[in-house]
Amino acid sequence: MRAIGKVYLVGAGPGDPELLTLRAARLIGSAEVVVYDRLVSPEILAMVPDSARMIPVGKAPKNHTVPQEEINAILVELALRGDTAVRLKGGDPFIFGRGSEEADALRRAGIPVEVVPGITAAQGAAAATGVPLTHRGLATGVRYVTGHCRSGVELELDWASLADPETTLVLYMGAANLHEITARLLAAGMPAAQPAMAVSSATTPREARLVSTLGRIAEDFAAAPLAAPVLFVVGRVVELCPRPARPADCVAVDA
Predict the structure, then answer these.
(1) Most buried residue among 18, 36, 72, 187 by CB atoms closer than 10 A?
(2) Superfamily classification of domain 121-252
């Protein structure tokens, strides 16, 4: 009887292969089976050996081609067959990546699982854009929030708490609900002039930015949408966004 395999939940980081951990790069480079998300960059997928079996399980907004329960079952089945699988996830597996759900399913099935952390999108975007997540005098804290819920579930967050102008707010998966999110923050008292920024494909050659304000970013983004994946940063720290060397790198919208 073949021994049970193992699953590695590997954080692929924000996209630049040089931002992978050494352990993540080693596991990707020696993988036999890779189960990967839609947001893993092509540069990182290119590191997978040609001999490896590739299983795409990516989700797009309102189009979950592979439900989470099926992904869990795929990982369990691979390990029960004796395979050692790399479950490759954009950013960090435990930050809006459903990695904890997969780890729980694997452990309940008796499958060994190991988590390899990655630089999350917020950290990658901050480093790439020069916009810090915290800064003395501008932000006393930072909060990561998902702007997308399960299908049919209302986006209900603690808007009064999130509207704190002294805190940097980072919105993951918020493009589809951006109008609602900004309206709820404004209604909760966050100033319309609060700086805001959208960052697409941070740390990769496809990176693009849109700098605006809370009161205008939904309209500005609708007029000039950025390609997924997009991260939104709301807070006074966005004032520190340096002007780019090339105008195409950053679109600044006057308040």
Answers:
(1) 36
(2) Tetrapyrrole methylase, C-terminal domain (3.30.950.10)
Residue 254 token pair:
């006057």
- Output the CA–CA distances (angstroms, integers) from residue 209 to 27, 45, 143, in the order listed: 32, 24, 20
CATH class of the domain comprising 6-116: alpha beta
User: Among this protein's residues, is 16 annotated catalytic?
Assistant: no
| Structural contact between residues 101 and 150, judged by C-beta atoms closer than 8 angstroms | no
Residues of the chain with CATH 3.30.950.10: 121-252
Which of 16, 37, 92, 220 is catalytic? The answer is 37
pTM over 0.85: yes
Q: Decide: helix, strand or coil at residue 47.
A: coil
Structure tokens at 207: 């990176």
Q: Which of 16, 89, 173, 190 is catalytic?
A: 173
Active site residue 220: no
Question: DSSP states of 161-217 as a string?
Answer: HHT-TTEEEEEES-STTHHHHHHHHHHTT--TT-EEEEEESTTSTT-EEEEEETTTH
Name 87's Cβ contacts closer than 8 Å, sequence gap at least 6: 7, 8, 9, 10, 35, 36, 75, 93, 99, 102
Rg (CA), the chain: 19
Catalytic residue among 6, 47, 59, 164: 59
Token pair recorded at residue 84:
């050692």
Which residues are 34's β-sheet partners? 54, 86
CB 231 within 8 A of CB 172: yes
| pLDDT at res. 254 | 45
83 assigned to active site: no
Q: What is the mean pLDDT of residues 150-169?
A: 84
51-95 pLDDT, tens digit each: 999 999 976 555 557 899 999 999 999 999 999 999 999 999 999
